[in-house]
Fold this protein.
Amino acid sequence: MSVEYDFHFISKLLLESGADREALNGDGFKAILGISGTKEGAEAWDAPLNIMKNASSKEDFALAFEALEAVDPTTLDKASLARVGMMKGKECPDAWDKARFVELMGKV
C-alpha cells in the first residue's frame, strides 16, 4: 500500500528491511507496482517527483533534488514540479532549499 499511495520513504524503509518487491497481490500485481499495478515510470515509488512530494527534512530534500537533477529535465512535468515545489516551500520552510529549486526549474 505504501507504493500505491506514494509514501516513498515508507516504501524505502520496507524494502531496506527486506520487504519482497516481487510479492504478488490477489490480482497478480507485484508489490513494487502498487495495488493496481500501475506505479511505473513517472508514477513509480522511486520517481524523483514522488520523492520530492514525500520529503520533509533537509536530508529528504537533498535526496529528492539529487534524483531530480539526475534525470533528463525534458522528462519532468514543469507544472507538477512547480506545484510540488510551492507546496513544499510552504510546508517545510526550514528544510526547503529555494535557491536549488529555482535553479532546477530553470532547467526544466
In short: Helices lie at 8-16, 48-54, 58-70, 78-91, 98-107. The chain is about 50% helix and 0% strand. The radius of gyration is 15 Å.
